[in-house]
Write a structure and sequence with these properties.
The protein has one domain. Helix content is 41%, strand content 12%. Strands 1-2 form a two-stranded antiparallel ribbon. It has a two-stranded antiparallel ribbon with strand order 3-4. Helix 1 crosses helix 2. The chain is extended. The relative contact order is 0.12. The model has no long low-confidence stretch (mean pLDDT 87).
Length: 82
């Protein structure tokens, strides 16, 4: 997967998996399924991608980086994260 100028490897399919159970709002589940359908991937892949992306961004932020987004108008804004 490519994020900005960096490439992040996806989870190796040979890696041992674990089954989890989580309670999330139905609306969030529906958003995950909608995103999976748009990307033509599984909901599991959406969740894996979200976790990998969050870990990547958190590591960059802990090293002093920040997340910027360029809007369609050309303006650049800092994204506030938790």
């Amino acid at each position: 997967m490519i994020i900005g100028e960096c490439e992040i490897d996806t989870v190796d399919t040979q890696e041992k998996t674990v089954r989890i159970s989580a309670e999330i709002p139905e609306s969030l589940f529906n958003q995950m399924v909608e995103l999976a359908n748009l990307r033509k991937v599984s909901a599991n892949a959406v969740l894996e991608h979200a976790i990998q992306t969050e870990l990547y961004l958190a590591s960059k932020e802990s090293a002093g980086g920040s997340l910027l987004i360029q809007e369609g108008s050309g303006g650049i804004k800092k994204v506030k994260r938790f």
